[in-house]
Amino acid sequence: MTAGVSKPVVIAGGGFGGLYTALALASKRHHPPILLIEPGERFLFLPLLYELLSGELRSWEICPRYDALLAGRGVAWLRDRVTAVDANSHQVHTASGRSLQFSQLVLATGGGNETFGVPGAQEHGLFFRTLADVERLNQLVETLRQRRGAQQRIAIVGAGPSGVELACKLADLLAGAATVALIEQGPTALPQARAFNREQALAALQRRNVRLHTAMAVQAVEAGQLRLAGGQTLAVDATIWTAGLRLQPPPISPAAASDRRGRLWVSPELRLLHSADIYAVGDVAALAPQASDQDGDDALQPLPTTAQVAFQQADCLANNLMHAAAGEPQEPFQFQDLGEMLSLGIGEASLTGQGLTLAGKPAFLLRRLAYLARLPGRPHQLKVAAGWLADWGR
Ligand SMILES: Cc1cc2nc3c(=O)[nH]c(=O)nc-3n(C[C@H](O)[C@H](O)[C@H](O)COP(=O)(O)OP(=O)(O)OC[C@H]3O[C@@H](n4cnc5c(N)ncnc54)[C@H](O)[C@@H]3O)c2cc1C
User: Fold this and answer.
1) Which domains does the chain have, with CATH numbers?
2) What are phi and psi of 12, to 5 degrees?
3) How would you class 389 by CB atoms within 10 Å of its CB: exposed for 0-12, middle for 13-18, buried for 19 or more?
4) Which of 21, 41, 46, 335 is the best mutation target for the ligand 1 pocket, counting ligand atoms within 8 Å of the beta carbon and taking the most?
5) What digits encode the pLDDT tens for the residues 43-86?
6) Reported pTM
7) CA atoms within 13 A on the CB side of 367
């Protein structure tokens, strides 16, 4: 940094937590310099990744480039990866060998795929988290549709929201060219979902002939088959792994406290424990137990690892960064549950929340509008809205 220029607020990770913190902070008058460090070229609006796979949305809509999003917004973007944090010297180190000073640091590095050490899952499994994953799944659908064998089958491991939503979209795209098996080690699909959404999801899976296998643990993923608990095997043409989220923030020195999943403990103001200047938001952050929580870790109702939590935290954190710079007291984060939405196949969805329960096409349209309002930055929202209006006019 040049002498005389104040040190920036550095934000590591340009997902829902990091990018939205950067944009919210940049919208404040007299905001400090902001540096976003993010290795990807494009922001990914993950809740709409299913619609990218199915071709219902286009990549420029849900994966805008950071340079376009941030142009003229007062946020500098460094395409790099934070590899270590030195809390004492207020520096981050990056993969390209840079060492950068920060006034305040926000860790928002999100999560990756967790395969729980299941043999073969990394080597033979496909995933659903990146643009490259979407590409690979599109190729798989294409291959299976061309081959159209009677015995073709794909397996999706994990019947949480990602597994269920993906199963519905893939079944629609495959249009009978292969069967879809959804494998869950727990007793039910969508264990955390609202009852209405779960019922709608189970009905949507059934309509598409998706075979749901519950209480079935995958012990190994091999080329052409899954090994299941109890010595069974299941022949598959492909396995898509959606179970699990690996949380691995960059190492911090001195070490920061975290929960057993690796999420960093934060105070209600979203600051790391025992730190004045380092914050964490999104999947990588967990509210630390308070002294009044008798049973520690287990007494907490942890915040879900969702985009909804991350972008609400971003607003709170942008305020707190301004308060901190002004020496004012900070606000505690308060999560407001805005409800739950599921994409359930092409043109279908289900949603519950704010006194509303809705399924089918109306839910699909409302879900899209709700997410339109959440796309990053007003100029991008308007561009996408204009594109949708033009499509409807055709
Ligand atoms: C397929 C899918 C569908 C989903 N659907 C929904 C949904 O419908 N509703 C919902 O609320 N949530 C949904 N989620 C969850 C939601 O997307 C996450 O909870 C949310 O993205 C978390 O935001 P985040 O900022 O913590 O992490 P992310 O959005 O994952 O962003 C993390 C960013 O950090 C970057 N990064 C990683 N390591 C480093 C590093 N060392 N240095 C710098 N940058 C780094 C990454 O490149 C990434 O851009 C879905 C997730 C997936 C995968």
Assistant:
1) 9-39+80-113+246-325 (3.50.50.60), 121-243 (3.50.50.60), 340-393 (no CATH)
2) -95, 110
3) exposed
4) 46
5) 999 999 999 999 999 999 999 999 999 999 999 999 999 999 99
6) 0.94
7) 26
